[in-house]
Fold each of these.
Amino acid sequence: PPRENTPTTNMAIDLWMLRAFARPQCPRFRHYSWDRPCYTFGYGQDFAWVSEQTGATDEALCRRPTGGGVVDHRDDWTYALVIPASHPAAGSEIRATYQALHGALGEALFSLGIQTKMIAPPSNSEGTDLPSAIPGKCFEEPVAHDLSRPEDGSKIAGAAMKRSREGLLLQGSVQKGLVGNIAWGQLAETFTERIAAFLGTDLERLDWGNGWEKDWQQFSMEIESATWQHR
């Protein structure tokens, strides 16, 4: 079920879902919100640069375990998906998984009357993908297979990824202001159904288990540390 938490707790729960979930062979998905206006930024980004660019306080900034750029969470719909390492979608073709994820999201939005366009990958003269630039502000720098508005190309949805020995973590965001007033609860229902379909798995709803909060506490300590946040 949806939860509202601090930025560091939200990141800790996502990291726990990747590294220490009680049923590691199952894909897992959650949607969540934030207890304050905030930004997250990519694992490899410089904290001082992010602070300068956003003008936000330390309490409103949090480093993600995934890559990518700065994401503004002041008016967005946020989710996390973990695909276990044993699943083919967590393998070498993660760009195809990224494309499938946003295809599922585009279908879910379309079911609610929202048109989107998937951004095509850029190519050089030899037809190969161009190298990625150093990430900055995520929603100002669309990448291949992100979702945009057909009328003006504004980026609606993107996601950041982390692949580890446990699997693949995708942390995604939909900008509410670019989508408008839709039934967000229905989007969650349809989106998770589409995700289950492309992963070839059944959909099972779980309440938050007793003791889970204690389980992700170790990850909260890691993410709250100055070593994680301020490098």
Note: Strands lie at 3-5, 28-34, 39-41, 61-63, 71-72, 76-84, 117-118, 147-148, 155-164, 167-175.
Amino acid sequence: AALSTLARLPVLRWLAVAAAAFGAVQICLNSFFVTFAVRERGVTLVTAAAWLAAAQLGGLVGRLFWGWRGNHMRSVMPLLLALGVGMSVCAALLGAFGTRMPEPLLWPLLVTFGLTASGWNGIFLAEVARQVPAPQAGTATAAVLVVMTAGLVAGPLVFSALAATLSFASAFTAWGALGALGVVALLRARSARRG
């Protein structure tokens, strides 16, 4: 029943694609950053863990702040688009320059990556619920979460294959493109909603 809702509503289909892409970016940041920093940047495990903690702190602050900000907006779609662009740029910058970026620049990059890649979830699900009548909000949210879970499962598999074949840096760069795919899906969702 939940998935049939996606078949009926194009806006939900595009939101589900965006959720899968953003979920994959989020889980791969949290799952692979420490290995990337230790293996390819050559730092200690303690340093890499501290950097990841900064990203996760950014995510915690982001969820609270974006939720507060979203409550004061008529539509959260512009905010979601900005978060998608932010996580895409952060992933691409980390992949392209993370092995040699000066540490004073790496800290804010990681906090920003966390703010965007780990802070989008709450307002995103609120946006999903807004697309349907209130009695259908649970079904619509469940449908989108099923597709997002596919991204959470497939994302690390694809990322690890890229990292094994190329490098972790290359995989993060590719994840910048994946985040951009999520942004395109949000734009399509916005168009479908207006149509």
Note: The two ends are 24 Å apart (CA to CA).
